[in-house]
Amino acid sequence: MPDLNDLTVLALPTEGPLVADETENRLHLSLQGQPLIQLRLTREPELQVQVEEHFGQPLGQGIRTACYWLFARDPACQRLTWQFDEIPTDALLSGLLIPSEIVGQYHCLRTLFWQIPQPWLGESQTVSYPQHRVISNGKRHPLRPPKPQGEVYRRFDVRLGAWVSLRTVNIELDLERFNRWQNSPRVASFWQEEGSLDQHRDYLDKLAVDPHTLTLIGCFDDQPFAYFEAYWAREDRIAPFYDVDDYDRGIHMLVGEENHRGPYKVASWLSALVHYLFLDDPRTQRVVAEPRADNAKMIGYMQGRGFYCEKEFDFPHKRAALMVVGRERFFDRCALA
Predict the structure, then answer these.
(1) Strands 34-42 and 26-31
(2) Structural contact between residues 289 and 250, judged by C-beta atoms closer than 8 angstroms
(3) Model pTM above 0.85
(4) Do 145 and 98 belong together in one domain?
(5) In a domain? residue 119
(6) What is the pLDDT of residues 230-241, one digit of tens each?
(7) Biggest distance spanned by C-alpha atoms of the chain
(8) Which residues contact 24 (CB under 8 A, 6 or more apart)?
(9) Residue 278 and residue 324: Cα distance in Å, rounded?
(10) Of 46, 104, 108, 174, which one's alpha carbon is 20 to 30 angstroms from that of 76?
């Protein structure tokens, strides 16, 4: 894994490489080979930041990328204190900065920074979809937005030194790998969905027209390795088993490629999946899952990402553990880098 002390280049999803020249008291950032912003740093008693020059570039972009750099550079850093002579209106409106009690001083909080959708969601966000209640299959719930197509999330994982991304399932492109993954004895022991290509096409076709479930492919450096189902819990079979909220999301998870198993990879993709769901709709306050109660390894991985086991309960086909992570818990002391 990369040594964060040696970090000099940080990848952004749509803006190219962010290159840094950092000393004890200065930080100079360049984006796509052009100077972006230069900052004066004071590190004690906590990290304080002041803009020296932004080279004619948009100040808001410079502030955001500088916050990203400083938080990625030090995953333990929870707050940056910025000094401005003029009010940074755009950064305040977005929640990137909040005012302190001192005139001209503003804070960027890690827990707020990672809740801002851009640039991680790109064009796929549905955060402004209005609320309208409907009834389907005897369940009253909010009308769900149209499902996105293509890539919905991308972030460079600094610890792994790799891109982690999520895209929607393309049945023609993904059917054979889905079939191979589901027929793996390891996967089949938990999913119990072995079958032929035709059976798996039918499985994916049904989910494609189901408005409460979004099927996703997880990728490392654009190489598919996992299949996920993200569902609205209010309309799902899990709803009767706990006090479900209108915007709770649930997840089913399958890692198909053996070379992408292990705790470091799980920490990366599970954080990305939950991060995406919390960004996709700010009304989502909880993400839930219901792995088999005897799947101790997966439950342990989830607990390492902030989930807790609320209880065990019985589905018709399995004894399940109800795993829950709340928005506040996920973003508090946020482990993303």
Answers:
(1) antiparallel
(2) yes
(3) yes
(4) no
(5) no
(6) 999 999 999 999
(7) 66
(8) 41, 43
(9) 13
(10) 104
Q: What is the pLDDT of residues 105-163, one digit of tens each?
A: 999 999 999 999 989 997 655 667 899 999 988 889 999 999 999 999 999 999 999 99
Tokens found for residue 89: 């209106």
Q: Note whether 63 and 188 are same-domain residues.
A: no
pLDDT digits (tens, 9 = 90+) for 227-281: 999 999 999 999 999 999 999 999 999 999 999 999 999 999 999 999 999 999 9
Is the pLDDT score of 4 beyond 70?
Answer: no
What number of H helices and E strands is found in the chain?
9, 18
Residue carrying structure tokens 């009767």:
240
- Which residues 6+ apart lie within 8 Å of 93 measured at CB? none
The residues carrying an active-site annotation are 290
Task: Give the number of other Cβ atoms within 10 Å of residue 251's Cβ.
Answer: 21
Binned at pLDDT 50, 70 and 90, residue 81 comes out as very high
The count of domains in the chain is 2
> 197 and 237: one domain?
yes
| CATH code, 105 | 3.40.630
Q: DSSP letters along 267-290, please?
A: HHHHHHHHHHHHHH-TT--EEEE-
d(CA 50, CA 63): 10
